[in-house]
Amino acid sequence: MVATTQRFTLAKYLAYDDGTDRRYELVNGELVEMPSESDLNNAIAIFLLLTFAQIVPGQLLRRGTEVAVSGARATVRVPDLLVLSEELEAALSGANRSIVMMDMPPPVLAVELVSPGKENEDRDYRYKRSEYGARGIAEYWIVDPAQAQVTVLTLVDGLYEEAIFQADERLVSPTFPTLELTAKQVLQAGKP
């Protein structure tokens, strides 16, 4: 990942266009280029999107939607998958840009797919965990192919409680109790 040394405000970030199709997150005021997804991570994200489409209305599902989170300086994250509440979907309706601002309701679920490397692990397991918790996101999933596990974090009294699932263990989601999915199915993107 490449970071700039220039500090951005949220307004400057929202107006930024470098004329390319590069993807960025804003991390404590620094513009950080996001690497391309691996084919496996992309397949997992699509598999989860299709799975959630069976239990929630399609208009509540998002890929590529930005989420403004609190921090010392402006921070905007781009989860691999979001499930919105109906209230949030209504707030985003008609917006020029698909970004969940601080004055909007939080998403119901954010899913991050961990890319290889300590920097990526720290970002998903540490920083986003605290940012998403502070933002009030009810459930946060960390899908980690390298560790062969799916971590489901559930927000309870302002802090995430963690449950780790591996192999044929069925994921337990308090937000989506009817979900019938194992860690193996997720990590293999639905392949038998």
Automatic annotation (TrEMBL):
InterPro entries xref list: Nuclease_put_TT1808, Restrct_endonuc-II-like, Uma2
Gene3D superfamilies membership: tt1808, chain A
Classification via CDD domains: DUF820-like
This protein's UniProt keywords: Endonuclease, Hydrolase, Nuclease
GO function term, MF aspect, one: endonuclease activity
Chain ranges of the Putative restriction endonuclease domain: 11-183
Any one Pfam family match given in the protein's UniProt record, by short name: Uma2
PANTHER family reported in the protein's UniProt record: SLL0198 PROTEIN-RELATED, SLL0888 PROTEIN
The protein, known as: Uma2 family endonuclease
Origin species: Myxacorys almedinensis A
